[in-house]
Amino acid sequence: MRLGLPHMGKIYIAVKCMADQLGIDLVIPPPTSQRTLDLGVKYSPETACLPFKLTLGNMIEALDLGADTTMMPGGPGPCRFGYYHKVQEAILRQLGYNFHMVTQDGGLKHVINALTNGAPLRKVIVAFNFGIAKLKAVEGLEQMVHKIRAIERDKGSASRIYNESCKAINNVGDHQALNQTKQECLQRLNNLPTVAFPKPLKIGITGEFFVVLDPFANMDIEIELGKLGVEVKRSIFVQDWVRFNPFLIALGLREKDRSHKAAIPYLSHHVGGDGWQSVGEKVLHAKDWDGMVHLEPFGCVPEIMARNIMPSTKEKLPVLNIILDEHTGKAGVVNRLEAFVDMIRRRKKGKVCV
């Protein structure tokens, strides 16, 4: 088996770690690029959302590199995520690819058996824990970078260190080396020269999980906000999605988290994807965030629901909604971010009423 998986943020670091531990031949597609998007757009239905097109492009690139197995999880409606694997498999077979698609239709046990190379359960648990540990280390550094980007003197330094750190963490082979590498990276970030003025704004990012987590999909929005002196706040991380979302939500077993409970006065039940959480994030953080950016793939039903509910909440946190598809231009997104940040700064000075 040669396993190829789509990208989503830094999830490949955890997957590669698990694959190495279990002796699985993993084919990592190239970093998501314009070519990836072009492939996805070319072979996808026109009305398919951006995550569908990008993951399809990833699969094509992985299969072209020799993968013979791929996987796509699913979820409950009305989000179309639950149908990705069925449509993507049909498209890939029409293109002539001969491969095996692993899905959760057969249950969690089926997925584990298909992807663990017949390894004993104890070995699978050890591999999974080490993979999650790497992901936690990477995302712990990411949270630190969110703070540093807003105040770094030399713009781009924190991102450079973060990228180098991800490569180093990807290569370590045990927990001791992982902890040492993480501490060294944190020290490098703490040693960066910073500026004291202006005071950073705190802006949260929420929305559909794929476009929130994937830098190519969201056009490096966290970096662009950092350039504007913004400390990014984000409650969705890959490790949380890996541990909970693919299976527990589909089975109805995940308990309501804080954001879901906060949304109940305005949205009292799950609407697929992350729409429920998006509403709750605005309510939950109205007092500790200066604003919020809501990211939405074009045509995403759960986030359309969230977008239309947000203006009716009594919490008056400013929200910038950005709809993403293959036609979205980065220059336009950056211009909107600049205007949004300027509006928030003026609002905090009492010059703008919203």
The helix-strand sequence is EHEHHEHEHHHHEHHEHHHHEHEH
CATH class designation of the domain at 2-123:
Alpha Beta
Name the shape in a single word: globular
- Side-by-side strand order of the widest sheet: 2-1-3-4
Q: State the assembly state of the protein chains.
A: single chain
Structure in words:
The chain has helices spanning 11-22, 34-43, 50-64, 84-94, 108-115, 121-151, 157-171, 175-190, 209-213, 221-227, 238-243, 245-249, 258-263, 275-284, 301-309, 330-348, and strands at residues 2-4, 25-27, 69-71, 100-102, 201-207, 230-234, 291-297, 319-324. Strands 2-1-3-4 form a 4-stranded parallel sheet, sandwiched between helices. A 4-stranded parallel sheet has the order 6-5-7-8, sandwiched between helices. It is α/β, with parallel strands linked by helices and 354 residues long. α1 (11-22) runs antiparallel to α6 (121-151), α2 crosses α3 (50-64) and α14 (275-284) packs parallel to α15. The longest helix has 31 residues, at 121-151. It has a domain at 2-123: Rossmann fold (3-Layer(aba) Sandwich).
What's the gist of this structure?
The protein has 354 residues and is α/β, with parallel strands linked by helices. The chain contains 16 helices and 8 strands.
